[in-house]
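Loading example: each entry is read as two labelled lines plus one structure line.
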Amino acid sequence: MSRAVTRVVGLLALALTLAACGAKPPPPVDRSGLPAPKADPGWAPPAVETWTLANGMEVWFLRQAQAPLLSLQIIFPGGASADPQGKAGLTSLVADMLDEGAAGRTSLQISEDLQRLATDYGASAATDGLVVSMDLLADKLSESLAILKNILRSPDFPAEEFERRKAQRIAAALADEAEPGTAASLTLRRALFGEGYGGMSPGGIRDTLQGLTLADVKAQYAAVVQPAGARIVVVGDADRDAVQQALQATFGDWQGQPSAPLAVVAGAQPPAAIHLVNFPGSTQSVVQVARRIPGTIAADDQLATDVFNWTIGGAFTSRLNLNLREDKGYTYGARSGFNRWRQAGFFSLGARVKADTTRASIDEIQKELADVTGARPVTDQERGEAVGGMLLGFPGDFERMASVAGQLTALVLDGHPSDYLQHWPARMAAVTTADANAMAKKYAHGDFVIVVVGDKAALLPTLESLGLPVIEHDGQGNLLPAAPPTAPPAEPPVQQAAR
Amino acid sequence: MRTLLLLLALTAPALAGEAPSVPVKTYTLDNGLTVLLSHDDRLPVVAVEMRYLVGSAHEPKGRSGFAHLFEHLMFQGSKSFDDEYFKPFEPIGAAVNGTTNTDRTNYYERVPANYLELALWMESDRMSGLLDVLTQEKLDNQRDVVKNERRQRYENTPYGMVWKYLARDMYPEGHPYQHTTIGSHKDLTAASLDDVKAFFRQYYVPANAILTIVGDFDEDEAELLVAQYFGAMPAGKRAPTPTAELPVLAAPKHLTSTDDVKLPRVYLAWHSPALYSADDAALDVLSSILTDGKTSRLYQPLVYDKKVAKDVSAFQASRHLGSLYVVVATGAPGQTVDALAKALEDALAEALSTPPTEDEMTRALNGWRKGFFGQVESVLSRAQMLSNYLHFTGDADFLEDDLARYTDLKAADVHAAAQKWLVPGRRVRIDIVPGPQEQEVDE
């Protein structure tokens, strides 16, 4: 009865509202089904303009005038994959050192020069490229480029700054060893790729950083930070001619070829095994189940894997997350991903799960993989949701300049052409359910490595019963010497029953 | 009766150095639902934010974490759509989520412009019909999920437990901020279906909510849809905001805890003025002067020159009932926590002894000015900004005033704020040192 009364009062309130503003009464709410959308307004991504500076550097420019901001990124090919064997982190350290003194301006002066312009500067090494970026007010382009010119073309590499940045990178690597997600990521890469391409963290680990010298940094700078093959991405509120002139004035007379050899992918997909990192007392475990996939250069199936991935673990409503989180309550979130660099990549499924559900979570991940290649292939409805989700979400990726610039930089790193985004919607729309299921057949089986970061003493009995070798790593991803056999547990492990 | 509070015309396009402009129309439905509309058709997207004026500060004793647990239940289906809330949204590429803090809970969708009605249908269905389909099973499942969120973001993140210690050690017993938004395992376990029902009936009502729509939509049509979907709901009551005096510590406190970390860390914390109140912006600018850039007053001595710290940061954690000012330094490898703390205290005393120079002010304020342009780039961040303004200042059209809070500051204002609030005798020092994570005795 009380509901009926409030209903009446509510309707009365609505009537008063409408009477007051003199509008027609709105139609009653139809709750029998979700409302249909209005006509699709249609939208196409803006075209990327390209041109070449006098020295051959290629520029990708996208005008976005929603705010007086500019985002500029320069990609030097190679990146962490140009780190010599045993020197992981060297290209990252080169990136760190660029603004630590240049053309006679000291590290501290450069920091203040940038702050006065409100220009945010950064440089880092991704697997396939060293990326230097600036986010700036649009009217500060020439002043920012004047600083960037010094940083890129005339770094001074002072010895005391090198020692400081090296120590900072080692300290950061050490601190990261306490972070379970980072430990899992380092171990996953090492388990899949060893010390070859993709195997080491781009930032290096303590063991490799310790040995780096200032001479290494200078040599690597000369081998990597060269204009030939470098690309410049500019997104934001500026006139093409002004950008063209400013870039030409900054870089047009810069000459040089990169010479760093790139790492190659080591061996083949390793055999199935459990790779364990011991975090004593952890109330949660990180679980990752992963296998190698081809990189962006070789792969012609990236959009089909995007659709397959959405279904298996890419979306909140994916099979994996609905299972591990929304049905079992083992985790705050479970996801999968096809992570690709140029020469190689990996498909992984994982979650951070309550410690006593570690084994059950691995079992469920394996069950999802088995199901999608067997009894429960990707359905037409799932394919439609995935393709729709990616296509209709596309305009939202163009709101923020730095993220648009980031998308273009990702295309450069992956070796895609500048018109990729123009053709992407039609290509995505063409992915069929059969295509998605072909990806399941291709990638959702075979030897998967299983990475677990958690309390070894509590987990080992349930992991050993999987019948796979257990290989231990430290928090840097390094293999640990084989441990002596462990004593059997005093009591059988407790399995939390699924609800 | 619809009250038109404000309608601001667009000013000239923003130029560098000028303020960004976000036009907003504010009105209130008869049942008390406040509506904010801000049109912009640069991209065919629209953001909907539904903000309920309830956060963890409203939680009774023994129910820490409840407002956030409740937020999770809002994604578990409602009367006319008893399924995962994300299901109709992911196939249209929407960005959907909810967040809870001490002072409010918000829910948002960024959808393609032609799907505005879907977002309003879904938000109104759960606002009116959550309890019709709520079950013990859903509560139990999301309780497990939230406990895992706590494990992930607090227990198994280096230094993650410090947020609990800050809440516990900065506030007196019974203060609305004395517990964390994530809550304790014990209190999460105690939450019952009856708690959920009572909470929903008290707080999830039109009079206690702000609906914000930003992006590419037709204003007349949006008003009609809002009236259609929300106008008939019973009003309920605006929940009183918890009140609390800004605590004053009688003496400095020093606490130490162990955690599974590699490097020691020192937190210094003070009570500081509430969000948008006097000195709040001055303390933000102070943070830039202390730790932004290599020549900042704490970074240079601690990280660059003496190298006792791996990193140092300072921030004003602004909240509605009173803020915390926090300075954090992580030791470089080999440093003891006491050596780190001594160096930090000395550097801070030196840093606060003189007003910022004009050049320091220019650098800091340029950064803040540019930050405002970044804040209005996306429809979702604009929606949250507008509802924040209305909720905490009473005026959604506060952007210009907000920017002026910063750009009007003089060096003397920043110095005075630092002297007034960062008093050595009124700070809490929390050390986190490497060791097995401290056991939680009561949970």
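The two ends of chain B are 50 Å apart (CA to CA).
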